[in-house]
Structures are given as structure tokens and as C-alpha cells.
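Hey, sorry to bother you again with one of my protein questions. There's a protein on my desk that I can't quite get my head around. No rush at all, and the record is pasted right below.
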Amino acid sequence: MKIRFILPVLVLLSIVSTGMAQNWRGLTSGTTTVLNSVRFISGSTGFAFGGNVVVKTTNGGTSWAPATGVTAGNAYTAMHFANSTGWLVGDVLTKTTDGGVTWTSQKTTAMTLVTFRAVFAASATTAYVVGASFSPAGGAIYKTTDGGTNWVSQTSGTTNTLNGVYCTDVNTCFIAANATTLLKTTNGGANWVAKTVPAGNYNAIHFTSATTGYAGGLSGTSAAIKTTDAGETWATQTTSTTSNGFQAIHFPDANTGYGVGVALAGSNTIRKTTNGGTTWTVETVDTAGVGLVTLTGVHCTGLSTCYAVGSGGKILMTGTAVPVLSWRRPYLTAQNKVVTVFDLQGRKTHLYSGKPHHAVYAVEFENGTFQASVPFGNR
């Protein structure tokens, strides 16, 4: 037996979501400790972290509370996930396999004098962490291919601090660093090659495809550089900000990107591009409500729903949190059932197959501009 639902409300909500103005407002984080970065693992669940604090939301940022089970640390800087497996780094190196519910420390004695600034989970088993080693001094790179059971040090070839890492596959990765340094590997880190980039300090890196990527930082009068040939050549972009450049960048799709940085000239620094970085425009921020914030992290869960964090424990948001759609259940008997949802275009989403239970089932719909959790069940 199949039970079908038609949900025109999804189309309507998608239109409403994408049509909203890009106004950034403050959220209540529950902390005044500086937050270095933010990372969402779904449209509703995310983490903000920095200093000695990690806060978590399960409702799209409406409320935040201290995350439990996190390995104790004094400087959390970055987090990255491959599905439910992820790593949180800083003066710690800790792993979760259940979406951040529990964490296990993986930092070894060889890493004692290393502070990590970035992590990238290329898969559930392969990950890279980068930062700075104080003895011997230099850029530090570690890689695991077994989920963190073993971490192997790699040669960076530079004494500069490594600030950001991004991989387009398990073997091809890029590192953004200080002092006009940008590294690339195509063999899983066996060799890291310095690429020629415009002079500057680079804090973050993000790729939207195997060939197109961006590095955020400060290069002359530009806060970002771009490549369209897999990192072989890079060019500056017009970004409308110069003070320390972008501290963080994120692209929810190939054309739409956000950059954040230090507040300047009495306004907060959030810039947006909708044309792949050709132009960047100033985003509207409720400065009267949140004050001036040094923003150091940004992450988007959709084209128009994004979060930024920074000094004073501030969390800013644009767009709307993931809404929940619900409807009265159909009559479900004890036989096996298949529940399917169709949208107005006739596209089918397989939700559940089996015997219904007295429970709530959920699924997230994602059409590139909107996500929704849809609970249903025998209630």
C-alpha cells in the first residue's frame, strides 16, 4: 500500500524564503566569549565555538546552549564534517561519529606544540588538519586515512602559519596561509607545492568545484582572490573592503558567496556576491542591535540563510530558520506501508517503507534555496 501527499506549501515557502531581504540580525548565544567559527551539519543543527566554549543549536539558531561531551579545550578554531563524522580542532583534535553528540580526543604527544587552525574531512576516514608548530617552527599539516586512529605529519615547506584547508577530493587539497603562501597537493599531501598568488595574508579558502575556488584575506585593496583553473593561477577581486580582508568565506553555491571580517568605518563587514565574485555588495546589518563585531566565521545552510560569528560571543543570522511542516496522519494499519511525497512538479521523495510505529519520522527537503523538516507518523 502506498500513501501519497502533495505539498504545494513547499513551493510557496521556497518563494518566500528566497525573496527575503538580506538583513543580518543578532541571536542570543548565551556567551560573551569570542567565537572563532560556526558550522552547521543540517538546516537546523549547528555549532559555534571559540575560546573555551562550544554552543549548539538544534532549531536553526533560535536558541543556543553549551554543547555537551566536547573535549575540553581553550581555543576551538574549526570544525568540519563528512556526514555524521567530523573533527573539531584548535588546541585540541577531537572527533565525533554521531553528529556532535559525543567526542573523542585524538591529539597525540607529537602534536603537543601544535595549534590547529583548520580541518577538512574529505571523507569519513580521510581528513587533513593544518596550523602552526612552535617547535620546530613552521606550518603544520597532519593527515589521517583511517578515521583518526593514526595521524601522519606532512611537510608543508613553509614556516608560515597555515590558516585554512579545502579539498576537492581526498587527494587534491589547498591550504591558505600567511605571507603570500598558498599550497596545493594532488597526491594526498605527499608533496605540497606553493602556488603564485597576489601578495597578501590568506585566512580562508573555499572551492565551489574542482576548478573554481576562492581564498579570503588581504591582498592590496582586495579581500579575496579567485582561481578558475584548479589553483594554478589566482586573481584579485573587487570586494569593497580592505581592513584586514576577509577572515572567513563561504559559498552555498557556485555563484553565491559571503565574506566577513573586521568592522570598519562604523559598520560591520559582511559582503555578498551573486555572480561568482565579479562584484561584492555590502550586506545590511542591525548594527544598532549587535554593535560593531569582528567577524571571524561564516556558514550558510542555503542561498539566503547564513550565520556569522565573532567577538563578544556574537552570532548574526540572515534568512529564516528551518520551518517545520506537519499534517494529520492518514490511517495506518499494521501492514507494511510506503509513504511517498510528491511536489507540484511531480518529483517523488521516498520517505519511509515498513511497518508504521507510534513515532515521529522526519525528512529534510532541499531544493537549493529552502529546507524543511517534515514530521509525520502514527499519532
